[in-house]
Amino acid sequence: MSELRIGLIGLGMMGRHHARVIRETPGVELVAVADAVGDPHHVAGELPLHADVEGLIGAGLDAAVVAVPTVLHEGIALRLADAGVHVLIEKPIAGDSASGRRIVEAFERRGLVGAVGHIERFNPALQSLRQRIADGDLGEVYQIATRRQGPFPARIADVGVVKDLATHDIDLSAWLAQSPFATVSAHTTVRSGREHEDMVSFTGRLANDVITSHLVNWLSPMKERVTVVTGERGAFVADTLTGDLTFYENGTVATEWDSVAAFRGVSEGAVTRFALAKREPLRLEHEAFRDAVLGVRNDIVTLRDGLRTIAVAEAVLESAATHTTVGVPE
């Protein structure tokens, strides 16, 4: 079978990594690149550098990766849909739900594969955690808490920390629990003099009554990417910077003594750190996108997944602005 012909638009901080991984992924070929402002990381190689999406389409593509600023996602994605090109769009899907919905409808109407680059789903620690939750290792899930903190990245200019960073935590929490967000309550602040919020703290309740808590900011001198899932049998701690997964067992044992059996508590038990194969998440994401285009499997983050995530992000911003708990639309 011939290789899928892939185009890449956006050659910035993320685009350079996409270019590298596309070239490393079996079954695909990078045949065209585009960026209106040039090739700062020199990823084009021997390929001609196009100025816009029309140049990509003219190369005869099967699929494309969109790694441009968020405000440009809709226009480029709709043009690729019109040309019959499958697409992987960097997260978030769009700057707002209305724009995201138009993207979703365009690709669904044409029967094209569309994916969103919520790369945390492909982190080995979270993939293992998701499987262990599904296997019942944690029993009933009570809470998902995340911390995503670090210095401001120069690559971001058009959205705040909620749509850029917190969307990772929104997506991974709903994915781990296999339940959408129902309500959120949030606080944001702007401390760095930029236009958009640079710090957010919010809680949520999922439709299955799992509660969530999230600390996200661009104002911490240390970088932290931690997910803690607590349930009846203990707690899993996933560090997605290192790809490590640790289980802290609830050491409380069942008792037949009636007078205390009704009291349900916890105690410290065994601690297990799992040995995981640590493949690069971006490589796994591209393999999943390739296989979805080929019809081999379908474990991508779909455009509808991305649309639900941006709807939650909008509810977070509304909650912060109104100082109320906000329901997330279906």
UniProtKB/TrEMBL annotation:
InterPro entries: Gfo/Idh/MocA-like_OxRdtase_N, Gfo/Idh/MocA_Oxidoreductases, GFO_IDH_MocA-like_dom, NAD(P)-bd_dom_sf. Residues 4-118 form the Gfo/Idh/MocA-like oxidoreductase N-terminal domain. The keyword NAD applies. It comes from the Bacteria. Keywords: NAD. Pfam families: GFO_IDH_MocA, GFO_IDH_MocA_C3. GO terms for molecular function: nucleotide binding. Residues 127-236 form the GFO/IDH/MocA-like oxidoreductase domain. PANTHER family: BILIVERDIN REDUCTASE A (PTHR43377:SF1). This is Gfo/Idh/MocA family oxidoreductase.
